[in-house]
Amino acid sequence: MSTEHLAAILPSKGGPLSVEPRPTPTPGPNELLIEVNSIALNPIDYNMRDKGFMIASYPAVVGSDIAGTVISTGSSVPSDAPQVGTRVAAFAPCFLKRGAPDYGAFQKKVLVPSANAVPLPDQVSFNEAALLPMAVQTTWAGWYSMGIPCDMTFKAGPNQGMLIWGGASSVGSTAIQTAHLLGFKVYATASTKHHDYLKNLGAKRIFDYKDENVIASIVKAVREDQVALYLGYDAVGALQPCEEVLKRLNGDGTKLVTTVPLRADSPKIAGVDTVFVAAPADEVQRTEFSRFVFGEWLQGKLATGAFKPCPGLRVVEGGFEGLDRGLDELRKGVSGVKLVVEV
Ligand SMILES: NC(=O)c1ccc[n+]([C@@H]2O[C@H](COP(=O)([O-])OP(=O)(O)OC[C@H]3O[C@@H](n4cnc5c(N)ncnc54)[C@H](OP(=O)(O)O)[C@@H]3O)[C@@H](O)[C@H]2O)c1
């Protein structure tokens, strides 16, 4: 096996990335070494590149979403985890490892904990698979933060609703599918052009977030449908309208999770318990959480076709050399697509 591979290294805060060879690591006891075919881009990637967010030292390698093939396994990888030769999508632990070069997605060979990988059915391409890890992990971190159990038998009550703001985003579209599969009646927001697509993913009703009456329209629809909606998932940092919907419908006793960190000056409506999405902090519990999310829930839903990679995808040309351009484009904003780089 070659002892070096190509990587897009972040030499210092602000970048640009530098494509060069680096030593190929050997997996630790519970790790997989994955040969990468596709990388999907996330907002945290340009925050790490541009602001040094969560980076302990340089040079670093950033990136979280990969799809490829397992080429080597550590000595204690469980027998039910993906083995050598298995096509997988995997959540590279770049920010937990604070940019440590062996663990970032932006390279041809990446180390990941075995619990962070999901085997892929043949019909899911590497490009589609790369859309999955960050979005599915963040969505389930939201359900976990709400108190929804990591349990394949969980089913929402027959008339229980879920508000999802930012349904066309990577996280939001994943939250729509997941909430629908968990049995919730999903009320979501997105630009009108995405409404049909998001209904197909399982949303019951969709509203245009740019409509000045959007809050009143959601409240009216939920009441008409006689749905109990006291849980919300803010995928894009739209706290104020989410809190307003939950407050108007219920008064107190509601729960909102948000993907965007809360600040002292974040909007706050009394009676709505708003928390930042968070997977378990304890390492053992987090490993068990990831094993459930990827090795049990997602593996099962991909195998049956119940869950499909979403939203759309667009390939950024140029392989590793295209990563900086892709991150710049993502920072400007995308609509209903995730950017993917083939390497
Ligand atoms: N905490 C975590 O662990 C974590 C993990 C992943 C992501 N995040 C954060 O979550 C956010 C979403 O990430 P992502 O990758 O899913 O984003 P994304 O796919 O790049 O989001 C783009 C979409 O956001 C929608 N959008 C933007 N502003 C909106 C608004 N005010 N109301 C409704 N929709 C709006 C747009 O919808 P239209 O096309 O309909 O206009 C667009 O399609 C980012 O802030 C990211 O940093 C946090």
UniProtKB/TrEMBL annotation:
Start and end residues of each Enoyl reductase (ER) domain: 14-341
Pfam families: ADH_N, ADH_zinc_N
Keywords carried by this UniProt record: Oxidoreductase
GO molecular function: oxidoreductase activity, acting on NAD(P)H
Coiled-coil stretches: none
Gene3D superfamilies assigned to the protein according to its UniProt record, in alphabetical order: Medium-chain alcohol dehydrogenases, catalytic domain, NAD(P)-binding Rossmann-like Domain
Classification via InterPro entries: ADH-like_C, ADH-like_N, ER, GroES-like_sf, NAD(P)-bd_dom_sf, Trans-enoyl_RdTase-like
Similarity comment: Belongs to the zinc-containing alcohol dehydrogenase family.
Official protein name in the record: Enoyl reductase (ER) domain-containing protein
Species annotation: Heterodermia speciosa
